[in-house]
Amino acid sequence: MTITQYAPARLLERALVAFIGLLLVSLLIIFTIEPSIYTTALWPGWVPTERYPWPVLLFLGALTIFLCILMYGILHHWRWLFWLIIIAFAGSVIQIPVEGLQLLGVFPRLYPVWYSLFRGGVGFVELAFALWMIQTYRQQGIWALGKKEAAQVSHLAQTKQGQIEYRRVGQGQAVLVLNGGHTNCHSPLGHEPFFLAQGYQLIVPSRPGYGRTPSSTGKTAEAFAEALVSLLDILQLDQVIVVGISAGGPTALQLAGLHPERVSKVILQNAAVDGRYASGMIRVLTYSFFNPLLEGLVWAAFRGLGRIAPRAALKSLMWGLTSLPIDQVLSVMSPDQQQAALTFLQASRSGSGFLHDIHHSSGDLSRVTAPVLVITSKYDGLVDSSHATFMQSHIPHAQLFRSEAESHLIWFSTHDQEIQARMRLFLRS
User: Which of 144, 177, 207 is the endpoint of a domain?
Assistant: First the structure.
C-alpha cells in the first residue's frame, strides 16, 4: 500500500507546474525569435550591437532559476508560496485591459501584436489559476491538503518543581497520559478517542525536555513524578488513572510507587522499565542525532522525506520499531493508519527530553499497589517483551496482555481493537 495525496492537490500542483514549465519554454523561444522584446522591456531605448546581449542572457538565467524554484515549491507545497502565487496571478487582472488598450492604439504599442496577444492570454490563464486556488483554499485548505484543525490549546502550570505544559480535554474521571519519546502534549498519538468515548477526561503533560516543559522540571523519572503530584494538586485532582506509553513508563511507575494514594490504576503500553531499551546502536544514534543541537534538523529532514516519499518515510520510521519485515508491517496497515503514522512522524521532536529518557528508572516496583495492565507487542522492535515480563513478576497486581500488534506503534495496528477491548475490561473491573 502507498500513501497518496488528495486528488485535488495533485491536479492543482500538476496544472501549475505544467503552466510554469510551458511559460518558461515560451519565454526562451521568444528570446530566440525576437530578443529585442526583452531589451525593450528591460532597457527602453537601448539598441544593443549584438543580437543576444549578455545582460539579457543573465536576466533569462535568473528568471529560469526563479521559475524552477517556483515549480519545486509547488511540488513541496510551500504554504507561503501558495499565497504569493495567488497575489501575483490575481494582479494579472490589470495586465489584461492594458494589453487590450495597446492593441486598440489607446496606449503606445511597445511590442508586436502577437506578443501582446500572448501576454494577454497569459494574463487570462493566471487569473483563472488565482480563482481556482482561492476556491480550493475555501473548500479544502492550502494546496487542497485539508483545512487546518483548530489549534489545540495547552496550559502552563507553575509547580514547586518547575513549569509543566499540559493539555486538558474531556470530562469525567481523570486519566493522566504520559506520552513516549519524541512527543509532547499535542502529539497525535495514543488512544485519546477511546478514552474520551468512555467518558474520561485526559490530562496530557509534556514531559521534561519536550514542548514547553523545561528539563529543569525533572530530568529523572522520579523528579518528574514529584512535579506531577504538584500538578494534580493545582488541578485539584485527588486520584487519577495513569497511562504510561513507551519511554513514559518509568515516570508512570515512579508516580504509582511513590504516591500510591494518587493513582487508582495504571495502563502501560509497550512501556520500558528503564533506559535499557536504548542500548547499543540506539544509544549511539540518540547521542549522535537526537541531541538538542541536531534533533531539529533531523526531524525537519524526516518531514521533508514524508512530503516527497511518504512510504520511504514510514519505512525509516519503522526501522527499529518492529521485529517483522517492514514491508509486511506496512502491507497490513490501512491507508488511514499509514497516514496517521506519518502524521505522528511529522509532528515528532526530541528536544532535550529523549536524552533524559534513556537514563530513566522505574524504581522499586514492589511499591506499586494499584492494579496494573501491562500491554506489550510480540513484535516490538524497540522495547522487547523482557520489560513486560519483568513488570509482571515484580508488580503485585499486574496483568500482562500480549498483543499481536505488528510494531511498537500499537495504535496503528490491525489488532488495535483487541487492545481497546482489553483496556475497557480492565477499566471496568
Answer: 144
In a domain, 149, yes or no: no
CA distance 9 to 248: 38
pLDDT at 217: 97
Catalytic residue of the set 206, 215, 246, 403: 246
Beta strand 200-205 pairing with 173-178:
parallel
Regions of the chain short of the pLDDT cut 70: 1-9, 40-50, 102-103, 107-111, 145-152, 278-280
How many structural domains are present in the chain?
Answer: 2
Q: pLDDT digits over 166-175, tens only? A: 999 999 999 9
How much is the pLDDT for 8? 56
Residue 246: active-site member? yes
**Per-residue pLDDT at 3:** 38
Residue 377 belongs to what H/E stretch? strand 372-377
Let me know if residue 2 belongs to a domain. no
132 within a domain of the structure (yes/no): yes
Cβ pair 249, 274 in contact under 8 A: no
CA distances from 405 to 2, 38, 269, 322, 419 (A): 20, 64, 11, 9, 9
